[in-house]
Every structure is written in C-alpha cells, then in structure tokens.
Amino acid sequence: MAAFTALYDANVLYPAELRNLLMHLASMGLFRAKWSADIHEEWMSSLLKNRPDLTRFKLERTRMLMYKHAVDALVDGYEDLIPGLRLPDPDDRHVLAAAIRGA
Predict the structure, then answer these.
(1) What are 75-98's pLDDT values in tens digits?
(2) In whole angstroms, what is the distance from residue 89 CA to residue 13 CA?
(3) What is the domain partition of the chain in residue ranges?
(4) pLDDT, tens only, 16-45
(5) Exposed e or buried b for every residue in 11-41, given b needs 16+ CB within 10 A?
C-alpha cells in the first residue's frame, strides 16, 4: 500500500492529460488517490461550460472509470468540518475538509 495520500482537486482533474497522469501514478501505487463528489462536480461543470463538444454522459463515464481504478478514492462525511475552516478563499473549504477526512 502507498505511504501517502493525495487529494485531487478540480484544477488537476480538469485537464485530461494531467488527470490521466495522476491516475496512472496512483495505479502504480505511488500514492493513494482521493477526491470528493463535490470536487468531481466542480471540474466536470467547468469542462462542460468551456467545452461544448463534451457531454455530461462522456464525463460521467470518465468519473466511473476513475472510481473503477481507485475504488477507495471517494471521500465523504467531511461536510461537518467546512464551517470551522478559515481560508483566503472560502469556496476552497470543502477541499481542505475532504483532505482532512480522507487522510
């Protein structure tokens, strides 16, 4: 088992090349990949807004393949931590909360 965990934020899941590289590295056992449903929704929504050639169906397929190859990656139960976190960008609190819970 990998010695450490990496929580993938939307900014590294948005570009396909980086997403693929990070998934490959995790599948090699270099680290445990983690993410939340909120993080997935963030990168997918941004891609759909910026890339009209993509469809929700295609991105959902990508999400399902990611879950298939990193079965323990989904972090949940972090929402109760969000109100107590203070960051320069309050919209990033869900990411920090998921990182804390997924560690």
Answers:
(1) 999 999 999 999 999 999 999 999
(2) 19
(3) 5-73
(4) 999 999 999 999 999 999 999 999 999 999
(5) ebbbeeeebeebbeebeeeeebbbbbebbbe
